[in-house]
Automatic annotation (TrEMBL):
<keyword id="KW-0243">Dynein</keyword>
<keyword id="KW-0175">Coiled coil</keyword>
<keyword id="KW-0505">Motor protein</keyword>
<dbReference type="InterPro" id="IPR042228">
    <property type="entry name" value="Dynein_linker_3"/>
</dbReference>
<dbReference type="InterPro" id="IPR013602">
    <property type="entry name" value="Dynein_heavy_linker"/>
</dbReference>
<dbReference type="GO" id="GO:0005524">
    <property type="term" value="F:ATP binding"/>
</dbReference>
<protein>
    <submittedName>
        <fullName>Dynein heavy chain 17, axonemal</fullName>
    </submittedName>
</protein>
<keyword id="KW-0547">Nucleotide-binding</keyword>
<feature type="domain" description="Dynein heavy chain linker">
    <location>
        <begin position="1"/>
        <end position="369"/>
    </location>
</feature>
<dbReference type="GO" id="GO:0030286">
    <property type="term" value="C:dynein complex"/>
</dbReference>
<dbReference type="Pfam" id="PF08393">
    <property type="entry name" value="DHC_N2"/>
</dbReference>
<keyword id="KW-0206">Cytoskeleton</keyword>
<keyword id="KW-0969">Cilium</keyword>
<keyword id="KW-0067">ATP-binding</keyword>
<dbReference type="GO" id="GO:0051959">
    <property type="term" value="F:dynein light intermediate chain binding"/>
</dbReference>
<dbReference type="GO" id="GO:0007018">
    <property type="term" value="P:microtubule-based movement"/>
</dbReference>
<dbReference type="GO" id="GO:0005930">
    <property type="term" value="C:axoneme"/>
</dbReference>
Amino acid sequence: VEQVDIDCKKFSKDIRSLDKEMRSWDAFTGLDNSVKNMITSLHAMNELQNPAIRDLHAPTVPLLLQVNFTMSEDTTLADLLQLNLHKFEDEVRGIVDKAMKELGMEKVLNTLDITWATMRFEHEPHARTGIVLLKSDETLIEMLEDNQVQLQNLMTSKYLAFFLQEVSAWQQKLSTADSIISIWFEVQRTWSHLESIFISSEDIRSQLPEDSKHFDSIDQDFKKLMADAVKTPNVIEATNKPGLYDKLEALQKRLALCEKALAEYLETKRLAFPRFYFVSSADLLDILSHGNEPVEVSRHLPKLFDSLAKLKFKMSPDKKPLKVGLGMFSMDEEYVPLDADCDLSGQVEVWLNRVLVSMRSTLRCLIPEAMVTYEEKPREQWVFDYPAQVALTCTQIWWTTEVGIAFSRLEEGYENAMRDYNKKQISQLNALISLLIGNLTAGDRMKIMTICTIDVHARDVVAKMILAKVESAQAFTWQSQLRHRWDEGKRHCYTNICDAQFQYSYEYLGNTPRLVITPLT
């Protein structure tokens, strides 16, 4: 074999074939060591022809193999075999493995070059001012995160040495881009939120003059920054400008001061009208910015009151709403006139407090009025004279009163007092059921159904006391019930259960249904 002079590249095909057939040393048991060494050397030659081994690896091969050899057109197979590559099998494998890993790194870095050379920011105009803002791009964010993970993996490779500088440079660029994009979108979002408040709201500008001037300065700096950003659309170039992060960080801190001043201002408004705690800061700012326009503010009333949806305004001769409230509408369109005109002028938290007072005053006036007229006509007629909440509350007050009267008559010796009242209950309930069979408006039907729900419970409580032969108003069976009563001296409605007592709050609830009362509810 040593005398055969053939080109090594041509011979490598035979070596690969031979290697497959004689992979196990067991096949060489009948061969001498010289043949074994030759086969190993030829296999090493084949490994060194891997395309991953390029000019950058050529100088390292002779050093690792401890030989002085130069490949040329006159090199023969005999020359290669004299290198005794069989002695350096592990070294050759290490060279090839290193070359392949470095080739993979080079491909990753080439891909980064191509990807980020074409990656650009998308822009969109600001709705109110029209200035160009950065547009959120999920593809960009995902690409940035993926490439940072790739670079982090490269940094942990033991074959990094040759590409260390390039990988470190890319890691720095993408890390900077990530930080800049994050703070940039945060600054942009905060500016967009505050711009509509400090620039377009005259109420806020008058209440916070110093902070408004401060924001004007921020506004100019931010617009200048965005104008410059449009000129550099490439992501890497735009985000790696010297001093950009410091500028954005300074803007962020200045915007934070404006936000703090605004939050403190909103807190004073919430303290003045605590129901403002029910709404978000954005809704509260909208309420404050339209504080002198009750019609606009009325859109937010359902967020501030349990069931007050809108107000009825007094109209001017030319049919324009004045700042005077005449009545309130529930979300189910029930209308309740206020007991007196409500002044809706002045600061919004002031006139909303007037609405709250007027709402409670109206219900507090209607309840004793309905109490007086309860016995003047049949209940199935009386219920249509008053709002659902008033009719229901007075029904519950009269139930407590009439059960109390029945107990008094029992103590006087009239044994059938409670049974007689139970019969009256059943009669009143049947009268309401008859109404439900007839034609009713949606509002009236809901009102009757709600009273029926409570009436059924009241009937069952009385029937239970009859069955248990309860004869005293102090019995626990009665004391454990939720009992409404009207205190004529204090002119207030109270609810009692056992030894607890609560004053009725007169919050307008509209015409809403009630849960069926069971031992659980």
